[in-house]
Amino acid sequence: MLRVSLLKRRPEFTLAAAFVAPTPGVIALFGRSGSGKTTLVDMIAGLLPPDEGEVHLAGTVLTDTRARIAVAPERRRIGYVFQDSRLFPHLTAAGNLRYGEKRARSVPHSIRFEEVVDLLGLAPLLSRRPHELSGGERQRVALGRALLSQPQLLLLDEPLASLDVARREEVLPYLERLRDWLAIPMVYVSHQFEEVLRLATYIVLLEEGRVLAAGTVAEISLRPELRSILAPDLVGAVLDGLVTGVDAAGGTAELAVGSGKLQVSLRDVPLGARVRVQLLARDIILAIQPIEGLSVRNALLGTVTEVTPEMLASVLVKVDVGGPIVLARITEGARAALRLAPGDAVWALVKAVSTRGHAFRL
Amino acid sequence: MEPVSSAELEALRLSLEVATRSVAFSLPLAVLVAWILTRARFPGRTLFDAFVHLPLVLPPVAVGYLLLLLLGAQAPLGRWLHAHFGIQLPFTTAGAALATAVMTFPLMVRAMRLSLENVDRGLEAAARTLGARPLDRFLTITLPLMLPGILAGALTAFAAGLGEFGAVITFAANIPGVTRTLPLALYTAMQSPDGDPLALRLAILSFALGLAGLLGAEVLVRRVRRLLGR
């Protein structure tokens, strides 16, 4: 468990954030730039002293201003992957990787050099110097360097922010692998919801130095606080389900979601795997009677639990599909025509091609 | 003109020796002072900064004279050094090296300070999160990244030290084979009635040596920079 409660006053801004998050897992600190995310991780790392507060990790006190405890960063065993990688320019990639490993002599090495090189695909890069690496390669080396310091927590401060979209794809799969194969708790700072969706198991929403909400990704995806941060087109319920069927030729998998089944676009996934999918609110069609003769693959029967007006004459409809909730955005006109109100039974329709599943091992 | 005389070779050898010893002596101290001036915050820092740079603006003869007052055979510190360590500085090669070191010290500190200011503190923070303690961090991150400045400082000080005149002649006198370095030999040649050809050769030698030193410094610093990927 990671327990954080910190206060930092700056002339232009005050950070007062507290959350408790389960570990292991990937805790996303999600918020706009300037919401205090980096300040918060710097304090967790011990690089920035808080004015007041505490940091507890797995029962160990790292910071407690009242008890005057402030474990030095070099003794915290917290790995930090910076936005700008911060590789040592006078050392090769291998030298960078070994730097932290050598200094972790007093702790048992559960993460081995060869393992990290293998996991992050670093073998061809080892003899190169940082300036001979691409941005994505640099971040992978930085990630390996942090891992080899045998951390009990890994902080990743927007590790993909300085990369273009194609380069991000070079790194993201490796981050997913880390999450799935090493049981190291991670704090992942981002303002890209796509990354959070793919990586996080828990979200802490930050806004102007305060925690707006915290919870699992599925929980937070339904919260109005998230909608205040997210672009409207990215709003949509996140569902976690188990794979119950695979159509390898069609490139789809079938998930058990609540009382229904959901076909999602997803390749190379075994039966029984845990998969997360976001159903974007703008992609959901609501029907008040069963519909036939449509190409839509998914029709989940549920009950309307809430209708919330949005801007631009649209409403957001919450539909309980037997446990999980789906969000649908329809126009106010459509709602009026169907006379939709809480308690009504509806079918939520979504095309399989509008969904993209992300496999999780956790 | 006659071939290179033994007096010239002697002066050249002495100049190289004095410059080398002065750099060797002041290098670690200059790194320390550069670090203090860049990183440490303490009352009197500005005064300390001015004190370090004083040799740049003082007449060299004044520096030599101050050294005599401090370390001369009659001065308390000079007597103490002689009594306890058998060290005698005035009128010796070591003394010439010390006077040269004092004169070139600010040059060295300046170059090192510049490069230390350019060291990314973020890299030191990264080393911290990887478990490096302060001294470890300094030796493995800060110092290697300062290397271009250290080299530039050392080589500039060396090149300048080859030609230090005022402080050396005041503190260590003009003793052939002991403290008569290139500029002192040049001065001596100019004073003697038929010394013009010798003076000219010594002047050309000094010129060539200085130029070689500065060019060498530039090339070396560039190489190291490339090694650091900048």
Sheet having the most strands of chain B: none
Based on CA atoms alone, the radius of gyration of chain B comes out at: 20 Å
Main beta-sheet annotation of chain A:
6 strands, mixed
The unreliable regions of chain A are none
CA distance, first residue to last residue of chain A: 16 Å
Could you tell me the strand content of chain B as a percent range? Answer: under 5%
Proportion of strand residues of chain A: 35-45%
User: What letter string, H or E per element, gives the SSE order of chain B?
Assistant: HHHHHHHHHH
Side by side, the strands of the main sheet of chain A go: 7-8-9-3-10-11
CATH architecture type of the largest domain in chain A: 3-Layer(aba) Sandwich
Mean residue pLDDT of chain B: 90
Task: List how many beta strands of chain B DSSP finds.
Answer: 0
CATH class membership of the largest domain in chain A: Alpha Beta
Helix content percent band of chain B: over 70%
Poorly predicted tracts of residues of chain B: none
Describe the secondary structure blueprint for this structure.
The complex is a heterodimer of chains A (362) and B (230).
Chain A (H helix, E strand, L loop, with lengths): L1 E9 L2 E9 L4 E5 L6 H9 L6 E6 L2 E5 L4 E2 L2 H4 L1 E4 L11 H10 L10 H7 L15 H14 L4 E5 L7 H17 L4 E5 L2 H7 L2 E6 L2 E7 H4 L3 H4 L8 E12 L4 E6 L2 E6 L8 E7 L4 E3 L10 E12 L4 E7 L4 E7 H7 L6 E6 L6 E4 L2
Parallel strand pairs in A: 3-9, 3-10, 7-8, 8-9
Antiparallel strand pairs in A: 1-2, 1-4, 4-5, 5-6, 10-11, 12-13, 12-15, 13-14, 15-21, 16-20, 17-18, 17-20, 18-19
Helix pairs in contact in A: 3-5, 5-6
Chain B lengths: L5 H34 L5 H13 L2 H12 L4 H10 L7 H25 L3 H9 L4 H28 L4 H7 L9 H10 L4 H32 L3
Helix pairs in contact in B: 1-5, 1-7, 1-9, 2-5, 3-8, 5-7, 5-8, 6-7, 7-10, 9-10
